[in-house]
Amino acid sequence: MIPPEMYMQTIADLLGPIGAYLRDPSVSEILINGPSRIFVERRGKLERVQAAFESEEAVLSALRAIAQYAGQMIDERTPILEARLPDGSRVEGVVAPIAEHGPAIAIRRFSKNVMALPRLVELGSLPPDAAQLLEAVTVAKCNVVVAGGTGSGKTSLLNVLAALVPPSERVLVIEDTRELSIEREHVVYLETRKPDENGEGEISIRDLFRASLRMRPDRIIVGEIRGAEALDMVQAMVSGHGGGLATLHATYPRDTLTRLETMCLMSDVALPLSAIRMQIGSGIEVIVQVSRQRDGSRKITHITEVVGFDVDSGKYELVDLYARTHRDLGDRFIGELRPTGHLPTFAARIREHGAALPDAMLAAARERGHA
Prior knowledge:
The protein is an alpha/beta fold. The chain has 2 domains: 4-108, 2-Layer Sandwich (Beta-Lactamase); 117-368, P-loop containing nucleotide triphosphate hydrolases (Rossmann fold, 3-Layer(aba) Sandwich), CATH 3.40.50.300. The protein is 31% helix and 26% strand. The protein is built from 12 helices and 15 strands. The protein has helices at residues 4-14, 19-23, 56-69, 117-123, 128-139, 154-163, 205-212, 229-238, 253-264, 273-283, 347-352, 359-368; strands at residues 27-33, 38-42, 45-49, 80-84, 90-94, 104-108, 144-148, 171-175, 187-191, 219-222, 245-249, 286-292, 298-310, 315-328, 333-339. The longest helix has 14 residues, at 56-69. The chain is globular, with a radius of gyration of 22 Å. The mean pLDDT is 88.
């Protein structure tokens, strides 16, 4: 058996042409579209760089070494690789026949400095009063979904919210590929496993979710909902497992619920759509919508309460608690996440957990005549 240290050195040598970007803390993504077309993302903006591999074979060699380190294969029969580098960076690689113009690699890097809520306020992602609401929602064990597009900061925000969970609670984290890093003592990380070359031994998100329910969780955190596990998560939320946190890809809060519906229907449990909608409306309580702006900045655009599902209208009842209004100045956006004047229906639960609604939120409600 080859020692891990040797794998790490081999991978580092093979990725030498992009080594400087792997060490640069300002680089969040490295995209290799063949040996000489390489792009990096800094502060939300892509730029082409001069780095280059010697040949397509050099790119393939790097992918094969990463696959070996991860205990996987990448070839014509298995042309997709999902793995991690030794430093924790996430790798997605594709080769022929699905990659028409040669091997391509996307490397998502994660900051070694764990983000905290005050830092998000400093960066302008949200104002202090909205940060207070997110902390209160998390402490009060509301079920929260963080939604947004690719590279919008969903995982970073999930990390921030997870860090707000009281230290007395037991947290189980479920992911396809390890991305979350929660600074707390009582946390258990579970990771999926792909099938072997014989198609056996696969462990899915659904398998891990069902196992986690028997491990006395106070909180279950799902790194990203992608498929049928959505139904397991929603059913757990409506059956007493509060405080769940998860992310998924969606552009607007209402789209988030539509996507959840679609993924629940992927399950082998034959539930009518009406029943699924009722459970989603009851289980999901808060949607935090994040977006990458045109200037590369990442902002929270909505904090929305899911009040329920209205059978008569056939629609989810959504209420924006905070919403971002902004002006487009051409090269940048000027905007502000502000309270809408609506108060959450779970306000009493927030008080019961020793938290409080932001003063700005209460003031906006009084102006609207809701307080």
